[in-house]
Amino acid sequence: MFSTGSKLVAALARGMATSARGKERKVAVLGAAGGIGQPLSLLMKMNPAVSQLSLYDVANVKGVAADISHVNTKAVTAGYEGPDALADALKGCDLVIIPAGVPRKPGMTRDDLFKASRAINAGIVKGLVEACGKYCPGAILNIISNPVNSTVPIAAETLKKLGVYDARKVLGVTTLDVVRAKTFYADKLGVDVASVDIPVVGGHAGITILPLFSQATPGHSLKAEDINALTKRTQDGGTEVVLAKAGKGSATLSMAYAAALFADACLRGLNGQVATECAYVESSVEPDVPFFASRVKLSTEGVETIHPVGSLSKYEKDGLDALKPELIASIEKGVQFVQSA
Ligand code: NAD
Ligand code: LMR
User: Fold this and answer.
1) Among 52, 65, 194, 303, which is 20 to 30 Å from 332 by CA?
2) In this protein, which residues make up the domain named Lactate/malate dehydrogenase N-terminal (predicted)?
C-alpha cells in the first residue's frame, strides 16, 4: 500500500514540476463538484504551489470541499456554493480553472453543446467569466468547458466588455489532446511515454485538433497510414470516451489529470519558472484565425510567447487548411454570442 502510494506521488511529481518555493497562490475551480471538478480539485490540493483552494459550484460542493480539505497538504481549502458565494471564492485568485458545464452524450459534437439547452455552456462560461472580471481581474483563466473553440472567444469578449481583457491571461485547455497524442504515439512506437513530446495545434474539436507527428520526439519512420490512424484517434479521443461511457458523460479523469498539468505549468510561469505547453489562445500565428492552439511560453503575466506551428508535412499542411473554416466559424459564433447579448 505504502509503496504504491509513494509511486503515485512520484508519478504526479514527475508531471507536476512545480517548486514548492513559489509565492502563495490562490486557485479556484469553478464547477468543482462535477466529473472533472472533483478529481481536478484533489490534484490541485496536491500541488505544492497552491496555498488557498476555492471550490465553487452551484450545487453539492460543500461535501467535496470538506472531503478534500482533510488531505494533509498546504492548500487551505474551502467550498463555495451558489452565485452569492462566487465573489468570495474568486477574490484574490491568481488562477481560475473553469470546468463548469454540460458534457456531451453519444451522437453529439462539442459544437452541439452550444445549441443544447439554449447554449447552456456558453451562458455558464459568460456568467462565470464576468464574475472573474469583477472579482479577480488579474487572474489567469483556464477554460475547459466545451466547446472550447467558442468558449474561449466568449471569455475574451466578456472581459473586453468589462474593460479588463488581457489576451495573455485567457487560455483554452487543450492539454488532453497532447496527453492523448503522446499516449497513442508511445504505444505505437513501443517507447517510454515519458520520453515522448508532440505539439497539437488548431483547436479542440474533431478535425480542428491537429497533432504534429512530423515534429514528434523521438522521431519515427511510420507509414502514412499509421500517421493517419494516429491523427484520427487523437482527433476522436473525446468521442472514444463519450461512446465508452454510453450516456454517462465524457472524459473526466484523464481531463482532470491534463488540467492539473496545465494549471501547474501556469503556476510555474507565474512563479517565474520556464513553462511551455500547447494552449488555445488569442493568436496571430495563422492569418485570419484569431484564436488558435499552439505551443505557448508561460511566464509571470501568462502567455509570454506564442510559437508558430513550425515546418509541417504535406499531410499536416492539408489538415491545417481543412480545419480553418470550422475553427473560424466556431470563433465567430462565440464572439457573436457575447456581442448580441
Ligand atoms: P459534469 O456535468 O460532471 O460537471 C459539471 C459541473 O458544473 C457540475 O457539478 C455542475 O453543477 C457545474 N455547474 C453547472 N453550472 C455551473 C455554474 N454556473 N457555475 C458553477 N458550476 C456550474 O461535467 P464534466 O464531465 O465535469 O464536464 C464539464 C465540461 O468540461 C463539459 O462542458 C465538457 O464538455 C468539458 N470538457 C472539456 C474537455 C477539454 O479537453 N477541454 C475535456 C473533457 C470535458
Ligand atoms: C474531450 O476531448 O474528451 C472533451 O472535449 C470532451 C468531449 O466532449 O469529447
Assistant:
1) 303
2) 26-172
Q: Is 166 annotated as a binding residue?
A: no
Q: Determine whether the shortest distance from the Cβ of 57 to ligand 1 is under 6 A.
A: yes
Is 118 exposed, middle or buried, given 0-12, 13-18 or 19+ CB atoms closer than 10 A? exposed
4 burial level (CB within 10 Å; 0-12, 13-18, 19+): exposed
93 CB contacts (<8 Å, ≥6 apart)? 26, 27, 28, 54, 132, 135, 136, 139
Model ipTM value? 0.99
- Residues involved in catalysis: 204
In this structure, the residue with its CA closest to atom 9 of ligand 2 is 238
CATH topology of domain 26-173: Rossmann fold (3.40.50)
Show pLDDT as tens, one digit a residue, over the chain (341 residues).
233 334 445 545 555 555 545 688 999 999 999 999 999 999 999 999 999 999 999 999 999 999 999 999 999 999 999 999 999 999 999 999 999 999 999 999 998 888 765 679 999 999 999 999 999 999 999 999 999 999 999 999 999 999 999 999 999 999 999 999 999 999 999 999 999 999 999 999 999 999 999 999 999 999 999 999 999 999 999 999 999 999 999 999 999 999 999 999 999 999 999 899 999 999 999 999 999 999 999 999 999 999 999 999 999 999 999 999 999 999 999 999 999 98
- Hey, whose CA ends up nearest to atom 5 of ligand 1? 34
Q: Binding residue per annotation — 87?
A: no
Check pocket membership of 234 for ligand 2, CB cut-off 6 A: no
Q: Is the CB of 176 under 6 A from ligand 2?
A: yes
- Please indicate if the annotation marks 145 as binding a ligand: yes
Q: How far is the CA of 266 from the centre of ligand 1 (A)?
A: 21
What residue ranges do the domains of the chain occupy? 26-173, 174-340
